[in-house]
Amino acid sequence: MALGDLSSSSSTSELHVLAVDDSIVDRKVIERLLRISACKVTTVESGTRALQYLGLDGDKGSSGLKDLKVNLIVTDYSMPGLTGYELLKKIKESSAFREIPVVIMSSENIQPRIEQCMTEGAEDFLLKPVKLADVKRLKELIMRVLRESFKTTSSSSSSSLLSLSLSSSSSNVVSSPEDNTPSSKRMKLESRVHD
């Protein structure tokens, strides 16, 4: 399955996230937050580079690795060239990667955009700036998807590896309530203010 084989020789407790954003500052922020939360992170600067990394660009020389293990893709919505929405559509059209959860990020809280992404198959939509609480939600999302995939395989060794993954270290970083408000709550609060 495209979600990855937890029995691979790499660290079983490390979740691999592909982060896509044209802003180097935003890439560094999401990378740091994910690493604090014990995730392996690969960052790329565009939707086109993400497709190349995944081997979905149609180029015979691209990575296209059969053993590529990505548990989650987090992408900015607004990028030059291939947008996050277009990247989402291409991933969901791919038989190899359609099961990987895709989360869209944006600094703009535009309800039709959010609904369009969710309809197309996004697992979540995060409002920037991304906070540590958002990253914790992302890890929960990955765990839920992995649990669902293991239900279909019902392998006892996979279950024990999943337990290992679930007990991976998470940060005890404490920040002010305002800094730790997940973007989903910020979006709801902001949409009430604008109504």
UniProtKB/TrEMBL annotation:
Q: Which PANTHER family match?
A: TWO-COMPONENT RESPONSE REGULATOR, TWO-COMPONENT RESPONSE REGULATOR ARR15
Domain of life (superkingdom): Eukaryota
Q: What is its main location?
A: nucleus
Q: What is the protein's given name?
A: Response regulatory domain-containing protein
Keyword Nucleus present in the record's keywords: the answer is yes
The yes or no answer to whether the keyword rRNA processing is present is no
Positions of modified residues (4-aspartylphosphate): D76
Family annotation (SMART domains): REC
GO terms in the biological process aspect are:
cytokinin-activated signaling pathway; phosphorelay signal transduction system
